[in-house]
Queue: 4 jobs
Job 1
Amino acid sequence: MTDLDTELEAAAFRRLLEHLRTRTDVQNIDLMISGGFCRNCLADWYREAAATRGIELDKDAARERIYGEPFAQWKAKYQPEATPEQLAAFAAAQKKHT
């Protein structure tokens, strides 16, 4: 991997974060159903990447990096309770991919 590859991947990641921050209508459960990952997964992956470089980052700090604000604040503003339909679709998706 070249420095250019890393720069382009970083730019694409920043664009993904920007997109997810503006698409507050797309719930994490919807992302999990359709894509098998959500904003919290991205935060976990970010934290794991930091750990491989000897950087200790707690879950809240990683989530704030992904959400652009503290997770509790984002959740209160944008994340309603999952509907029964979403929960059923999530359970079906979990069965399909495990």
Job 2
Amino acid sequence: MDKEKTLNKPQAILFDMDGTLFKTESLLLPAHQRLFDKLREEGLYTAPTPPAERMMGSLGMLLEDIWKVVMPDGSERAHARANELLLQLELEGLKAGNTELYPGVKETLARLKEQGVRLYVASNGLEHYVKGIAEAHGMLDLFDGLYSAGEHGTKSKVHLVELLLQREGVSSAWMVGDRSSDVEAGRKNGLAVIGCQYAGFGNPDELAGSDVLISSFDELLGLYASSV
């Protein structure tokens, strides 16, 4: 853990989903090739399947922006169909039960909740995807709310977090995530930012501006215990 300062004890903690709670590659990599095979079958995309690393590197973006990075040569119709297919394949994968959380996620969340911390998800993903992960991994009861760009139509994580804080009446919180969008959302909403270094999706500068960097999820327990 790279600790730069003592944090104020939060009323709530907000978590990104992909790369923070959920080991996204356990679901996304099996779906990636199938998605592009289906697009080619339907005549919507003719190029070779883009590298999976391109998809993984774009996690944290809004879905409409992900396709601009992953298949910039694809038509609007192909992008729209890719949205439908990805959600379908991801929900099928979640039901199959072969996906993973990062080590210690459920145990850490449960201990934080026992100590009276309100727990939320703030994700740029689709509503059914975010809720599907929480349901598949038995986490629904741990959270006070699951907020997603897909459900609320927000155009950035900054606005999603702002909406969450207002609706839930949260006055002090930490933002925990692995991407620059999480750092920005925390900073612009006056929150302490905990940067997660263990996913490895982004570039080394992704988490610049975080108050604290952690290399395993359970380090949050020590941070909370030492906060004032």
Job 3
Amino acid sequence: MKKRVVITGMGVVAPNGVDLVNFEDAIQKGKSGIRFEEELDRLKFSCQIAGKPQLSEEKIAEYFTPLQLRGLNSSGIVYGVIAGTDAWKDAGLEIQENEAPDWDSGIIFGTGILGVDKFREAIHLIDAGKTRRLGSTSVMQTMASGISAYLGGILGCGNQVTTNSSACTTGTEALLMGFERITAGKAKRILVGSCSDHGPYVWGGFDAMRILPSKYNANPTEASRPMSASAAGFVPGSGAGALVLEDYESAMERGAKIYAEVLGGAVNSGGQRGGGSMTAANSEAVIRCIEEALRFSEISAEEIDVINGHLTATTKDALEVESWKKALNSKDFPYINSLKGMTGHCLAASGSIECVASVLQMDKNFIFGNVNCEDLNSEISDLISEEKIPRKTLEKPINILAKSSFGFGDVNSVVIFRKI
């Protein structure tokens, strides 16, 4: 018999809020974390705004030893360690200092690209013939699995400790990978999540593709406009989200707080065929992913109360809503919202940050509003009723929420949460 999987802890480092309390307050109030970045202006980016978490040196020092901080130059690792450690503590789990690993606990924590600034630092030193000045941590800061390795050592996890990477679906995919390991009885708990570096060396390629908004540099909080008729591209962001998934019986035995249950989900690819490409989703694959998530979770379309969409503020937003409408094929379309109006698109971190936002809504009985969507895209209003796209926060209980993420490479993931 499959094990039931519940969420017992969460942590978040987002552009509009660091820690659960500040993040929940921000999304309830529609607070944006998108700001003008002087560095992007100096480097002559067309888009000179971004969503970057605000962290002090004092805050960072709470999570790393002086030895770990020496030469640390990877924002993704910083974000991931803070979010992951907070989620662990939020679950009421202790950080053991003894010699024995926790064989029942593992980590699946993803990223898209890690240690970009450390790479740049290393390249300059190597080119200057100063390899020995690289320091002992350059490898662990730049290897993709550096984030799970850092967390694994801090938390002492002895089960599977690994990193996944699937562009913007990474965080949601990590959650489903952890879910599958627990349902199979191979672990009692898995810390899942994802992180993304910040900075021009991460965001520059997107600016070169001209898919970022360039006319809002003086009005950064208005730039990210999911489902809006005036959407002009996604705003780049960064950060990390983390969730502790746990076997239901284990959670009950130790009296843990349960935020929600993970019913299941699905992951697939459109194969970059049938309208899909490196940068665009195959709509048939999206529809199949949604349908498979419902089947696996053993729920009907009518039972979904809210969809937290991928919805990045591009011309593809209407197509995403259309795919949901076709997949659900129900008379009463659920409420739908997008976090990206407040955070921008946090790339590999987006799925996990948005999963945290989704579960917070369920736990606290609210649906956050869609920021910057006053001028709803007419292609979307032709598909669903405007009342299903709240502009302000609604106080409303949620029983079942569907979270979707779609990424470069034509990859898709959908997860279904249920309130307990």
Job 4
Amino acid sequence: MRLSLATEPAHHHRPNEDFVGVASDAVVLLDGAGIPAGMESGCSHGVAWYARTLGSTLLTTVTQSAAPLAELLAESIKAVASLHDFTCDLSHAGSPSATVAMLRRSGGGLEWLVLADSVIVLDTGTAEPTVVCDDRLERIGARHRAEVDGLRSGSAEHAEALRRYIGIMRGHRNRDGGFWVASVDPLAAEHALTGSLPSDQVRAAALLSDGASRLVDLFGLATWRQLLDLLEESGPEGLISRVREAEHGDPDGSRWPRGKALDDATAALWRFS
């Protein structure tokens, strides 16, 4: 088994709100949902703290229990909520949240879990890899993004439209018919995408925050197969470098409308053969 990873904040003067951690037979990746300036969250700790705390809790739990990944996620969400229940307003609609992607090798199987818009890509040796992606956030967001996408990134108008958009999306978070993400309610774990394959059928697996997967699913500059090839040839650092090149080439979002001109980016590649 060989595992390589890289993570890079969008801006080096701001905290990285992604988390990635590795154990002997597991990888955990989280992408904290950033909160624009001027919006409240009800939490004094912040998104980076939440991603790090939930990520490290998950990594510890997954090494100590053979329970299903969704059950471990629910337990971890509950445990982290208890850490700031008496200091923060956990009923606030903007309580810190994070996407979750997990892989665990157990016995002869490889198990996965994905909640919200982080991505797992499994190289099974076929022409097209298996892509595990929870698109509920994207589908809900597409209904409300027109104003944000029509404005230049970095402008005051774009920032204000983004705040309105996030306010609308908070009304769809962790509700039936909406999208699900790790936050304060353990019930969200029941809505994660889960599955497994015999581990001898998987050559390699990639875990990606949406800041890294955007090379494919937002920019359209590579296929998933080409992304896996890039990871094999240049490593996670090479993938993030390609993403940064595209972002800097379109700083105002005129080619690729998006909420964040640059995003925290994290990638892990787990090779099995």
